[in-house]
Prior knowledge:
Layout: E1 34-37, E2 43-47, E3 67-68, E4 103-106, H1 112-126, H2 130-138, H3 140-149, E5 177-179, E6 181-184, E7 190-202, E8 205-208, E9 212-214, E10 223-231, E11 237-246, H4 253-260, E12 261-266, E13 270-272, E14 277-285, E15 291-297, E16 306-311, E17 315-316, E18 319-320, H5 321-329, H6 337-344, H7 352-368, H8 374-391, E19 409-414, E20 417-421, E21 455-463, E22 469-470, E23 472-476, E24 482-483, E25 539-546, E26 554-555, E27 565-573, E28 583-586, E29 595-598
Parallel strand pairs: 2-27, 3-24, 5-9, 7-10, 9-16, 19-21
Antiparallel strand pairs: 1-2, 4-14, 6-7, 7-8, 10-14, 11-12, 11-13, 11-15, 12-25, 15-16, 17-18, 19-20, 21-27, 22-26, 23-25, 23-28, 28-29
Amino acid sequence: xxxxxxxxxxxxxxxxxxxxxxxxxxxxxxxxxxxxxxxxxxxxxxxxxxxxxxxxxxxxxxxxxxxxxxxxxxxxxxxxxxxxxxxxxxxxxxxxxxxxxxxxxxxxxxxxxxxxxxxxxxxxxxxxxxxxxxxxxxxxxxxxxxxxxxxxxxxxxxxxxxxxxxxxxxxxxxxxxxxxxxxxxxxxxxxxxxxxxxxxxxxxxxxxxxxxxxxxxxxxxxxxxxxxxxxxxxxxxxxxxxxxxxxxxxxxxxxxxxxxxxxxxxxxxxxxxxxxxxxxxxxxxxxxxxxxxxxxxxxxxxxxxxxxxxxxxxxxxxxxxxxxxxxxxxxxxxxxxxxxxxxxxxxxxxxxxxxxxxxxxxxxxxxxxxxxxxxxxxxxxxxxxxxxxxxxxxxxxxxxxxxxxxxxxxxxxxxxxxxxxxxxxxxxxxxxxxxxxxxxxxxxxxxxxxxxxxxxxxxxxxxxxxxxxxxxxxxxxxxxxxxxxxxxxxxxxxxxxxxxxxxxxxxxxxxxxxxxxxxxxxxxxxxxxxxxxxxxxxxxxxxxxxxxxxxxxxxxxxxxxxxxxxxxxxxxxxxxxxxxxxxxxxxxxxxxxxxxxxx
Length: 599
């Protein structure tokens, strides 16, 4: 990708701010990355500390020098103290952090994707007819706008929808701050807490009822999150909430960031393989003072399928994450129609969801006028369909946005979402660098050329929204180490009443998409047959590479004339990536689905 490694800064990063222990105690922590700015302020240069593990191509030397052997114990902080509820999987209790069995019930599998497609098809087929236009304005257009805004669904074509209330326009952050409710025993002693979170999975999308969590009432006690995961059309996936914890109980992001980097783990890896099903999973958490965020992801369509709930009490530059949301969208963006529209208009017009919303409102106004101009409506209807197609995927840039040929990847912030694209992408096929997996990967972001340190990574950041976005780049165990757990979720590894794996299958690579295999009729039965990758996932010691405590990286808002905001970042990686993930990139101010991870 990049033509070669160049010196991007004259300053020297600080190496190893802690001695570290033996896994599962916190491993040695790197020091600060060195951050400088170009003279014009348009480019940030970052040099990471030197990695502690031997430099080698981990893909050629599996599972890699930064791989940590599994230890079936809870994580221990740098001072040696144990953090409860941090061992996600054990040989005899495969889902160790599940608080009780997984329960299921049937739901309607219809998704926003399928219902918007139906509504747009109705518009395409009927807008030329005066008789049909009355019906379209009352039904198809209204249904589509209600889906995008997350309004109550009243149309006959969209009744009994599990996704009702989930807005596809991401303006509702201030209303999605879940407060953990404390639980007391008979003597009034606080013994825990719980928060219920609803999620929908469909297409490339994960959406959640909570973009933030306030753990203030459970700081000193373990607690739980009860997830209600609705698997809609084209949404089957493994449930994998990857939660990051802090070693120090402080929520000031830059000030405490040097020593906070702690452990992270996939708390579950449970297969949810039936559309039209709601899976309820209760997950055990350590005391709330350690909670950083939960990164719920789907390995089949990653980075598209990813959503984060942040600790809303965390602060950046003296302002909490909740305040960043309310400063942009108001305290109640659904208070009335005018307030709602003002909040939605903070979203840039190049965002596919906003573009659909604009076209639908234009058509509604045109159909209400006494003289409807079919010819004038035709390009609007065509743009509506194209915008819908853009909305289906985040793994390419939407229309009107061009990838920078001089960068490894171009990230476009729009609708509080990150879209990614590259002129250098090699997604699949011969020459892709994926080997036996060359037929895969169309939905994945890959950083294939980063094999051995040092590696220069160039990213162009574009902002189409009417507010500032930020950039943080996080390492998932490359520098500090990662551990492989949930072996029992891969049926090819299960040895059951014999000497051979239960379902021997040619994996064909470390990111295998397994073919269908027999499942237990009882989803909680033993052995628990899952559908995980060859390298099933578990715990990893995380660290921040760029942004955050090493200097905020901001991307200016779109200009009044429509020119997108821009900032460039160049990172010199001085360690090797873990096999589970190369780079986790996100907006620290408005996290939610503003994420672009690369394998």
